[in-house]
Amino acid sequence: MTNLYVTVVSQASSTILCEPSTAYTQPTSQQLIEVLVDIPFSGSSAAEPQKLFTYQVPTDLTVEPGDILSVPFGNQQLGAIAIRFVSHLPSGLSWQQLKAVEEVICPGFFPASYWQLLQQVAIDYQTPLIQVIRTALPPGLLGRSQRRIRLCPDGIPPHAEQFLKPAAAAVLQWLQTANSSDYTWQYLQRQIKGAKQGIRDLLKRGWVESYLEPPTPPRPKLKQAVSLTVEEFPLDLTPRQREVLDVLRRRGGELWLEELLKICNTSSSLIKALEQKNCLVIAQQEILRREQGIPQNPDLPKALTPHQTEALNTINSLSGYAQVLLHGVTGSGKTEVYLQAIAPILQQNQSALVLVPEIGLTPQLTDRFRARFGEKVCVYHSGLSQGERYDTWRNMIRGNPQIIIGTRSAIFAPLPNLGLIILDEEHDSSFKQDQPMPCYHGRKVAQWRAELENCPLILGSATPSLESWQQIKLQPQNSSKNYYYLSLPERVRSRPLPPIEIVDLRQELKQGNRSIFSNTLQAALQRLQQRGQQGILFIHRRGHSTFVSCRSCGYVMECAHCDVSLSYHHIHSNAAQQLKCHYCNDYQPYPQRCPACNSKYFKHFGSGTQRVTQELAKLFPQLKVIRFDSDTTRRKDAHRILLTQFAHQEADLLVGTQMLTKGLDIAAVGLVGVVAADGLIHLPDYRASERAFQTLLQVAGRAGRGDDPGRVIIQTYTPEHPVIQALQRYAYEPFVNAELQSRQEMNYPPYCRLILLRLSSLDETAVTHAAHELATMLKSENYELLGPAPAPILRIANQYRWQIILKLSQNQSIDLPEFETLRDRCPRSVRLTVDVDPLNFS
Question: Which of the residues 100, 624, 740, 761 could staple to 830 if both were Cys, CB 3.0 to 4.6 A apart?
């Protein structure tokens, strides 16, 4: 790094980013550009991610600010972002020391407003800018070269290990006996003690060689296309050859080779013969990889209710930035309002961005949007392949009017002509990222982006977050802040909301019912098929049981790497029984005897999705059940496959966790059962009541979307709890007002702001000491400091965890030392994460 000039740039600086159109005068024929390099982050180089490095632009290369580059950095080849041109060499740097940009990986990714958005995220969420950029880009676009070590067998004499020190002998033996003689430097470091010195010894002797494997970003997918090149056909063509050219002409003169062969039922040799006669040309053309979904029948706009019409007219009248809270009860037709609000946006050659909290919501929503708008709809989320995400991203920056439907990270979709942003289920905590940094909230970033793009933002929900309710609903309408509250208080076609029945499980126990299903729920399940209906059962947790303990001595089976109990998993009768940790995903075989007292008697406590499905099979063998949770939806397209099966009535019951509480619109669902509501209500979190109310009201709303009003049965041990009481009456506004009053009295969000500093390390002593050091540094009169204290779960994946919470007033700006400064106060073995406005404290 000594041969690169370094310019240190403050994270808060507004001068490091420039307009892509800004011109710079070059005093020499050689063009210079400053770039932000994707440097591996480490404690010893904490400030490096914020430095700009100067490179020469080769004369045969065109580089513009905002381009993604590949540059040499030390002995590596790294990804970088072109920031700005400079007009002269800084002092202390000669032309001989200057390195040149190797390649433009992707041109023109960042318009000016997009740069501002990324910088705003970096500043407000206390994150180095390069980490924000990496979050925004599709995976694999910024890649790092890898240093590899390769054996040179021809130069190694017999019995060479006798001449070596132990570390070098160990490396040599590994390379000679392993499956491959070529490994990354990092891998050998992890596998062999003292590998660094050993490799150095072998390099001096010439028995191994070191080389760099350059980063390989996703490449465009190419496909053979056939293009007609003549207007008049030659006379020496056979009838079959004329037929092929006629087909090509009728189809506009160009077709994919594969498609042409299929239409004409011919061979590639005939096509190549026509190419030799200069009648056509066969060439590779790029084809965009994208998630195709399934074909949809065209759909026309639906007739709107008076409340929908009023909401749509208000949205269509907006010009420029505005925040709209669309509060509609479940089944009130919010999606139809979205669709009709987007239609004029596309007609104006603009694009729309629709965010949903979970991947599981995208199939149904995408199908409905594609039925209305066809190929203009694309999806963007982590469930896509790397190539699909890369091509979808590149298609966005072309500027064609389109609709992007995606999860949290899609807020960074680079749509150049953005006319509308929609957050569906805006209350959902999945819009908040816990780790890695930046720990951003999709709703907050959407607000910034809508303001930068000067377009409306619609926040839709049946159970709005307290933050949005307090910010928008309680503000004067049409104020200078452009806040609008729109209500959809009735379901479409005047369908009633399903009645909610509360079952007291304490009374069930007194009556001798020890099943996980109450008598009321059992009777409803028994009548399900007779009524020709489907049902949904909601369980708070996946797996079989929440924990397993010995009935003889009380010993609880716990994870060896985390301070939590293991959950029992048993997928089917022929599968092995397992105990699994839901935090680090470690698992172990189900023990035959207790490790503490050698007893063979265990008891499973709590009910997960696996146990519920097994109990259903015993009590209701006639019912076909689909389990829908993170265990059964890991594979690509699993969400779509399972939901499609259920929508086609290939199953009677859908049993699942949070994923099924939102977005499902299936007319045949006449029963919703909540097996145990208490697991949501009684959590050590000041947001527990709000989250429980939102979740239970959302899942209740899955019932009664057809002609039958449906039925909701909620089982609980605490029917007198305020959440349950408000839920039974659908009393959203009284509940929210009471909850806001309680938050204000306790000075909790949305009446204050919180910042959570998480520290973790394999070394318990190091993380404890670092937490106290950091707390001492952060003591201030400007905010309240809580901690340091161990995290609620002290150890996860062998990492010991401490935390510090800072409490600020609502309108107070975040006045903390920069992240690099905070990081420097921690030893290299301690990892630090700053979470602004956290939702998860575990």
Answer: 761
Query: What is the per-residue pLDDT across 654-682, written as a single tens digit (0 to 9) for each?
Result: 998 887 776 677 888 999 999 888 878 87
- Quick one: DSSP state of residue 132? H
Quick one: which of 648, 742, 656 has its CA closest to 699?
656
The pLDDT of residue 294 is 63
Could you tell me the pLDDT band of residue 740, with boundaries at 50, 70 and 90? very high
Phi, psi of 105 (to 5 degrees): -75, -50
Alpha-carbon distance 175 to 210, whole Å? 13
Which of 380, 358, 354, 355 is closest to 430 using CA atoms?
A: 358
- Report the DSSP pairing between strands 403-406 and 602-605: unpaired
Smallest Cα–Cα separation from 369: which of 329, 405, 328? 405
The CA distance from 321 to 351, in Å, is 15
Instruction: Give the DSSP H or E segment for 819.
Output: helix 819-824
Q: Which percentage of the chain shows pLDDT scores above 70?
A: 86
Domains of the chain: 6-136 (3.40.1440.60), 146-213 (1.10.10), 221-287 (1.10.10), 306-492 (3.40.50.300), 500-543+607-741 (3.40.50.300), 547-605 (no CATH), 752-836 (3.30.70.600)
Q: 3-class SS at 475?
A: coil
The Cα–Cα gap between 576 and 270 comes to 57
Alpha carbon 33 to its chain's center = 33
CB atoms within 10 A of CB 9: 18
pLDDT of 816 over the 90 cut: no
Phi-psi region for residue 623, left (φ > 0), alpha (ψ -120 to 50) or beta? Answer: beta
Could you give the CA distance from residue 241 to residue 259 in angstroms, rounded to a whole number? 16
Whole-number Å distance between alpha carbons of 192 and 222: 42
Neighbours of 91 (CB within 10 A): 6
Count of alpha carbons within 13 angstroms of residue 517, beta-carbon side: 22
Cβ of 168: how many Cβ atoms within 10 Å? 26
* Contacts of residue 14, Cβ cutoff 8 Å, sequence gap at least 6: 119
Residue whose token pair is 């670092």: 770
Cα distances from 755 to residues 84, 438, 783, in angstroms, run 33, 13, 10
pLDDT at 8: 28
pLDDT band at 596 (very low <50, low <70, confident <90, very high): confident
Report the helix count and the strand count for the chain, using DSSP H and E: 24, 34
DSSP state of 556: B
Question: Please, are residues 352 and 421 in contact by the beta-carbon 8 Å criterion?
Answer: yes
Q: What does the DSSP 8-state code read for residue 278?
A: T
Flag whether the pTM goes above 0.70: yes
Helix (H, G, I), strand (E, B) or coil at 378: strand
Least reliable range by pLDDT among 14-18, 295-299, 398-402, 512-516: 14-18
Closest C-alpha to 589, from 608, 610, 566: 566
pLDDT, greater one: 2 or 465? 465
How does DSSP classify residue 469?
A: I
